[in-house]
Amino acid sequence: MHPALIYDMIGLSGRTAPFVQQAFLRSRAPLSGGTMNFARYAIMRMRKKKNLIPRMERCAHVLAGDGASLRGNWRSLLRDSCALHVELGCGKGRFTAETARLHPDVLFIAVERVPDAMVIAMERVCALGLENVRFLSCDAARLPELFAEGEIDRIYINFCDPWPTKRHAKRRLTHKNFLKLYRTVLKERGEIHFKTDNAPLFAFSVEEFPTAGFSLSEVTDDLHANGPTGVMTDYEAKFYELGTPIHRCVATMEPWTEPEEPPEWEHAPVQDRGAEPPEPSAQ
Ligand SMILES: C[S@@+](CC[C@H](N)C(=O)[O-])C[C@H]1O[C@@H](n2cnc3c(N)ncnc32)[C@H](O)[C@@H]1O
């Protein structure tokens, strides 16, 4: 795959990509002197992502491109009748690779917005020779652009960022806004499998799921109380070592109609409401 395509997939496009691409090509040959130019600056910026692009190139066959062209047709990558599971924020991919290895009949799409983490997950999948995994380098908020209505059977959310302040609550992957977005791509009675070490995030999430029409099952505050259970993620393995309890639940999407927002005046304190709206007149 041409490096330019990989730049596009990981969001380095437009004005930056040609410079970074040039920098990458030059980085194959020793850089000669000269003043600091954008290409050098790009290389410095990329130092953190050492060899990111060549590493991605080596695993390019597990990158799902821009994803949008597969919308409604993802199963064609494996088998029309297969189940389609999507993992949000796969990180370094221990869970992705191991779960996909155990279920070769399921197509796994791993979504991750940080390419440095995702490349490690891609390498793990390639090392195992798995054919049922593809990676999408993007934000979870883009799911409706990438998947058709009802296309996904299951979503995994493992150890997502807790965003502890109220100000940032909307960024939590279990916030109602995200749950409503998942509703557009999950099939009816599709599931969200959620795990976290973070007790306040878990408490928030088990309240949030029903507000978006999901019923809960398999709710536990100590998943590994009786020994290791299920496939662990990279974060989970570390927390397990430390003895931190892991919370888990399964949320099932039920038929649901979003309740109408109460009218503005109902939010106001009683003394500020003024006159209540008149009753609708009988025809
Ligand atoms: C705390 S790490 C957990 C990684 C992995 N799931 C695990 O359990 O080891 C959270 C991961 O989710 C990714 N992430 C957070 N918000 C995201 C979003 N909106 N879309 C895609 N990835 C996201 C982060 O980049 C990070 O790699």
Give the overall shape.
Answer: globular
Strand order of the largest sheet: 3-2-1-4-5-7-6
Mean residue pLDDT: 85
CATH architecture group name of the largest domain: 3-Layer(aba) Sandwich
Taking the sheet with the most strands, its summary is:
7 strands, mixed
**Low-confidence region ranges:** 14-47
Task: Specify Rg, calculated over alpha carbons.
Answer: 23 Å
CATH class of the largest domain: Alpha Beta
Q: Work out the strand percent.
A: 15-25%
Secondary-structure element pattern, one letter each? HHHHEHEHEHEHEHEHEH
User: What's the helix count?
Assistant: 11
Draw up the topology in text.
Layout: H1 3-9, H2 16-28, H3 38-46, H4 52-58, E1 83-88, H5 94-102, E2 106-112, H6 115-127, E3 133-137, H7 143-146, E4 152-158, H8 176-183, E5 186-196, H9 199-211, E6 214-220, H10 234-242, E7 247-253, H11 264-267
Parallel strand pairs: 1-2, 1-4, 2-3, 4-5
Antiparallel strand pairs: 5-7, 6-7
Helix pairs in contact: 2-3
The protein binds S-adenosylmethionine.
